[in-house]
Structure formats: C-alpha cells, structure tokens
Write a structure and sequence with these properties.
Radius of gyration: 25 Å
Shape: elongated
Number of helices: 3
Largest sheet: 8 strands, mixed, barrel
Helix content: 25-40%
Order of helices and strands: HEEEHEEEEEEH
Strand order of the largest sheet: 2-3-4-5-8-9-7-6
Number of strands: 9
Structural class: alpha+beta
Strand content: 25-35%
Distance between the termini: 100 Å
Length: 239
C-alpha cells in the first residue's frame, strides 16, 4: 500500500512540474514574440517631435492626405543647375525629398510632417524645422528598426545628399551625438544651415530614452533651373 501511495505521489509531482515547465516555456515564447511590436509602439511614443494631424485645406476636414512625388536622384546635367533658386514648400503629408548616404546604405523617402502613418512610409521632417534651402536646422527622424537602422554606423566625414523636386543639397557629417529624449539641444532652430538626423538607440528590451544622431554641415546646394525630365537625365548621362 505504501508503494502505491508513493507512486501516486510521484505521478502527481510529475504532472505539476510538467505544467509549470510548459507555463514557463509559453511565457518565454510569448515574450520574445512581443519584443518587436513593443519596440515599434514605444518608438512612436518616443519621437521628440510629433506634429498634430493637420486640416486638409481643400476639404476643411480633419485627416491626412499623403502625396507621393517622383523625386529624381540621378546626377542632373550642369546646364539645368544653378547656385540660386526658388524653394518649393511642401504640404503636410507630402513626400518632398529623398535622403541618401552611400556610406551606410541609406536611401529613404522624406515626408514633410511627422506622425505614425508617415513614419511607416519613410523618414519624417518636422514642420517646426526648416525646409531644404532655408537657413536653419532641418531635423529629420525615422524608426531605428526600419529606415534609420544603419544611422548609428555613420562616421564624421560621410556625405548625405538630399534630393528635392527643386534642388539637390549635399551635407557632410560633422558631429555624432547622443542625447536623452528630454534634451532638445540638437533639434532646436539654429542660425546656420544644417541637417540633423536622429533616431532611438537600438535596444532589445524596454523603452529607449536615448537618441543617436548625426549633425551635418551644408557643403553644396544646387537648384534646378528647369524641370528635370527623364530625357534630360539621359542626355546628361550620355555626355
């Protein structure tokens, strides 16, 4: 009889331990599966600048109208470029630029304005900063787990080029910065014409309050003197 009770007790213990083991295993798997979605949600909450939803001028209704533009990133012929020109100001939700940096494999569309819908599509430039060509600080941010995943690999001296539908703006990385999300030092207006790129610092678990960025100085700007067409691009390439 004693042996039977021992066997029953051992069996119950095995069932309990098995249940505990399975519970721990399921919890661990669930935690790993939720890491990426959690990071994504937290990234939305951690963007330093986030514009409010704008009113669509044509309808007077609240909402976001996303406008996609075809931005040429090929080398334009010299005769179609000038040192001076006119800035074309974008509307909220409009893709008005393409940001490239060959050194870190960066090639991303840039939208005017910043909210979660636009951050899903590319990098975002807050409307409180300056458009390309204006004197001041042009501040662009993107998610570290998507479009700016390689930003932390940038080095001083790397070249960043901004292509717009009215000109091409070339910057050189002058300083690599790290700052907390409460520190606005690098994203406030400036008198000099600069480009500031930033994203959250990558980490596996938890909320990142640290930002990594690249402050760039303008080294060249060219404005289009006439629309850049595919034919013009072809002629320039042939020459």
């Amino acid at each position: 009889m004693a042996d039977v009770k021992k066997k029953k007790g051992a069996g119950v213990l095995v069932y309990i331990l098995t249940g505990v083991f399975l519970l721990i295993l399921c919890t661990a798997v669930s935690a790993v599966a939720l890491i990426k979605p959690y990071e994504k949600v937290q990234t939305y909450l951690n963007i330093i600048f986030m514009d409010d939803m704008k009113i669509v001028p044509s309808t007077g209704l609240d909402g976001l109208v996303i406008k996609e533009n075809e931005i040429k990133t090929e080398e334009a012929p010299e005769e179609s470029l000038s040192d001076t020109g006119e800035i074309i100001r974008p509307s909220f939700g409009e893709q008005y630029a393409v940001l490239k940096c060959d050194a870190i494999g960066l090639n991303v569309p840039v939208y005017w304005g910043s909210n979660k819908e636009l951050l899903e599509r590319g990098a975002c430039q807050t409307t409180s900063s300056k458009v390309m060509g204006d004197a001041g600080n042009a501040v662009i941010s993107a998610h570290v787990n998507t479009f700016f995943k390689n930003l932390e690999q940038a080095k001083v001296g790397d070249t960043f080029v901004i292509y717009t539908n009215y000109g091409i703006f070339t910057y050189e990385a002058a300083e690599l910065v790290t700052f907390e999300n409460t520190d606005k030092t690098w994203v406030v207006p400036t008198e000099d014409q600069r480009l500031t790129l930033y994203t959250c610092k990558q980490q596996v678990l938890g909320t990142s309050t640290t930002r990594v960025g690249v402050v760039c100085r303008l080294i060249d700007q060219k404005y289009y003197t006439k629309p850049v067409t595919d034919d013009a691009m072809g002629e320039g390439a042939a020459e």
